Structure formats: structure tokens, C-alpha cells
Amino acid sequence: MQRRLDGRVALVTGGGVRLGRALAEGLGREGASVAVHYHASREGADAAVAAIRASGARAEVFQADLSRADSVRPLVEDVERALGPVSILVNSAARFDRVPFLETPDEILDANWALNARAPYLLSREVARGMVARGGGDIINIVDVGGAFAPWRNYSAYGMTKAALAALTKSLALELAPAIRVNGVAPGTVLPPEDLGSDYLEVLRERIPQKRFGSPMDIVETVLFFLTGPTFITGQILPVDGGRTLETGPAA
Question: Transmembrane region positions (predicted)?
């Protein structure tokens, strides 16, 4: 039985942990040949590759420090040499540093910028050249409601760089059309950090209209919607947040 992504090659950054791993495995279940990128999480990347192969699709692991600009071209070259031309890029790798604004050191700001904003820019440029030459492709950026819609307190560096990624999504949708569609998914509270504490997490949960946190599969299914659903969609950023961005507090 043919699967929805049979014949396509997907590069998923940050594919060894958390949401990135769920995305890599989800695309593999739909038949894509998946390049699972990782920086330090080799064990998780290997596990993702094993799961994808068990589902009947091809997969390989690729290591790169995407905070280094000179790592981007070799990564794409290695992926295409091993699996074939990339037709799907999922920019998922990110830092998520919780630091009050007045205490944020330059190093944290620079690290967030390098991975959350510059790396997707450079990777998109690298793969888009081939996509345009071949006549098509998809770029999916994993943004965040905290960058695209409503800021998170104590995440100024993260939110600023995710806002830049949201702007990049729209810019590329204009510049790369009609060959390439570029869309974004903005998760709300999905896989929240465990170190926030149960009381704080309960406060977060109560602020979500659906009164629950999202699951990785909510994001996977949204990415698959952009990849396999209506083709007349580009430049859109879809919040997947249980209605959190609708919450404005009590009426005055």
C-alpha cells in the first residue's frame, strides 16, 4: 500500500530528541526516506533511525553542529549523497533557554540566534537551490507560539529568535513560490521541561482552554497536513496550542 510520502527525502534537524525525533519517525511512517540530524544526541538519533527502518522506510543519521555556519553545506551534501535529493526540510533543532531578560548573558543570546534563526536560514537556502532546480519541495519551520504570537516570560532570547524564524517563513514563501511551499507550525505547551515543577506546570495547564498539554503527535499530524493536504497553502504559521493564544485574561 502506497504511503503519503513515498519517494520523498526529508531532512529533519534535531531528530534525536523530543519533538524532532517524533517528527523524524512520523515522516518515516509515511514512507519518506529520513535524514535524522543530531548534534549530541546520537543514541536518540540511532533509535529514531531504527524505528523508521522498522516501519519499512530508509533512514540514516547525520551529525552536525548547526550553530556553526560552515556545517550546513557539508550536512546537505552528505544527506543527498546517502539518500538522494532533499524535497522536505523540517527545521526543528532549537535551544530553549529559560533566563530572565536582565540576566541573559551575551553567550545565551548568540547561541539562540545561531541555532534557532541563522541555521534554518542557511539550511533553507542550501536545500532550496536544489528544490528550485528540480521543480518543487517543502520547507516546514517549527516556530513557537512564544515567538510567532504571544511571548513567554523569561524566554526573551528564545522568543526573539523564533519570531525571526516566523518572519523567515513568510519571506521564503514569497521568494521561493511557486516551486517551494514554506509553512510553519507553532507549538504551544508540548513536552514542557520537567524542571519547571508540578505546581508551575499545573498553572500552565489551567491557562489552556483545552485544559491539557499537547502531544508530539499533534505536531506531527500538523506537519503532515502541510505536506500532504491542500497544496494551495504557503506562508502560513499554524498555532497548535489548545487555544492558548486566545487567552487574554479577565475582561476589564
Answer: none
